[in-house]
Amino acid sequence: LLRLQATLDAMPPVAAMGIRIAGYADGTLRLRAPLAANVNAKGNAFGGSLTSLMTVAGWGLVTLKLRLAGLKAEVYVADSHIRYLAPLYDDLVAEAVFAEGQAWDLFVDTLVQRGRARIQVDARVLLPEGGLATTLSGRYVAIAKR
Description:
The chain is an alpha+beta fold. 32% of the residues lie in helices and 38% in strands. It has helices spanning 2-9, 12-17, 47-68, 104-114, and strands at residues 20-25, 28-33, 73-84, 92-98, 116-126, 132-144.
């Protein structure tokens, strides 16, 4: 997790948002960003920050799992669908998991055999009182480093 945080800190937009790793357990990567650095004119979380945090959470999940598997690959978001469900007036907390039905072993096998693979990730930003502020469904592509 320290190595992943260092990678995040080296990206100027991510650093400007104040994104920190809040934990990784049971296949879920959790990121946090302060509202003060991601606020809009209405005093709630900026939509672009919500999208960015979830996109980075998905990227971070795939990147972390590849590193834990000892594989070297560049990870990119290929496409995503965002839903804004409710305004958030608190710090941003995003969780990313592999989408239901996604097989990590198949993803790894495809990456090793073909040099590239894709996997679906679901991310969400939580409301402090429960419920969801925003959701993302995204496809991430890994390209093996040669």
